[in-house]
Write a structure and sequence with these properties.
Helix content is 35%, strand content 15%. It folds into two domains: 85 residues, no CATH class; 240 residues, Aldolase class I (TIM Barrel), CATH 3.20.20.
Length: 345
């Protein structure tokens, strides 16, 4: 398998450097999906292969080259590598780590619609992601059954129409920006045509994973929307923010989009005061405000990323001494059945 795909992969990697503005769909299609190829491209020794294969069998590998290019080759401790490389410990079964930690299945009035919090609903816009993050709480989510079809969107609009206290729609996923602009444009236009909807929020990792996703086609439907536009990015480490990401953020801001960031506190990735402080300062470079720092949702396969609440609170207490108040993320946990995120500090 490795031998067959090698020449093609190298061609793509070179292409990234010489032609940074390749269209996002081909970058997505060219993402690395073979665990052994991932080990090889990362320059890892053979000992990592068995774990990569075992983890991939539970949750597929997916890493676009634009993200790979920010990882230091030959360093198994690289904070970006740890987010994307499956390891043997994903196969451990750990008490309390389950397949649907947020019990979202209980809060779906319609397929693809999650309504847990009063004024806002979350729409599972696309089952796909541009990257598969090993700690993801949706790693076991039955996407195929839950992505709204055109018909389902009619039902969702009806649901919103009957509940005018809902003023905000959150496009989530998967990654909503993995959908085509045509589909997103249709959805956004129909949703924001409701008088009661005054905000459209998009939760996405794509501007970070493939910054070229923020292209003229996307801005073409997003900029003219006549509601407050908020994008919550998902960045866990300062090293994820390169010049392409900063440029993508600038294009979004110019289109009138307010930019926030949420991170997950992850052992071995960002579990130090220094890493968290650097992340906030780097977000400032991109003019993105830190919003949430989530403690890990206890999803099966991700226990090795876990940090106790006590340790998390201690980190954030120290962090507060180093950062301007507006660069402090709120440390929160999602507790099933609660009507908002629960602050831990
Ligand atoms: C996190 C979440 C939201 C958004 O919550 P905010 O605190 O407003 O960011 C909305 N709906 C669901 C189901 C969520 O999990
Ligand atoms: S939903 Fe978000 S965290 Fe989960 S795999 Fe997709 S991009 Fe990563």
């Amino acid at each position: 398998m490795i031998t067959r795909s090698t020449p093609q992969v190298q061609a793509i990697a070179t292409d990234i450097h010489t032609a940074p503005h390749r269209d996002w769909k081909s970058q997505l299609a060219g993402a690395v999906r073979d665990p052994l190829e991932l080990c090889r491209l990362l320059g890892l020794s053979d000992e990592w292969q068995a774990g990569a294969l075992a983890g991939d069998a539970l949750f597929k590998v997916r890493v676009p080259h634009a993200y790979l290019s920010r990882i230091e080759r030959g360093n198994p401790d690289d904070p970006l590598l740890r987010q994307v490389l499956p390891i043997q410990r994903e196969t451990d079964s750990v008490a309390g780590f389950v397949s649907d930690p947020l019990e979202e299945a209980d809060h779906q009035p319609l397929p693809g619609l999650i309504h847990k919090y009063g004024n806002r609903v979350l729409l599972i816009t696309s089952g796909a992601c541009a990257i598969n993050c090993r700690y993801c709480f949706r790693r076991h989510y039955p996407y195929a059954d839950n992505t709204p079809s055109q018909h389902a969107l009619d039902d969702i609009l009806h649901y919103l129409n009957e509940r005018p206290h809902i003023n905000e729609v959150i496009l989530s996923g998967g990654d909503p920006l993995a959908s085509s602009d045509k589909r997103l444009e249709q959805m956004a236009e129909r949703l924001t045509a409701l008088d009661s909807i005054t905000r459209l929020r998009i939760h996405t990792r794509l501007p970070v994973v493939i910054p070229d996703r923020i292209d003229e086609h996307l801005l073409g439907w997003l900029a003219p929307l006549n509601v407050h536009k908020v994008m919550v990015l998902h960045i866990n480490h300062a090293q994820e923010i390169d010049d392409h990401v900063i440029a993508a953020c600038q294009r979004l801001r110019e289109a009138g989009v307010m930019l926030l960031n949420q991170s997950v506190l992850l052992r071995g990735v960002n579990d130090s005061v220094a890493a968290l402080a650097r992340l906030s300062e780097r977000l400032m470079d991109a003019q993105v405000l830190p919003y949430y720092l989530h403690v890990l949702d206890p999803v099966a396969g991700a226990a090795h990323f876990d940090i106790s609440d006590r340790e998390a609170v201690a980190l954030v207490e120290q962090l507060r001494k180093q950062l301007s108040g507006f660069l402090m993320p709120r440390l929160v946990r999602e507790i099933p059945g609660e009507v908002s995120k629960t602050p831990l500090y």
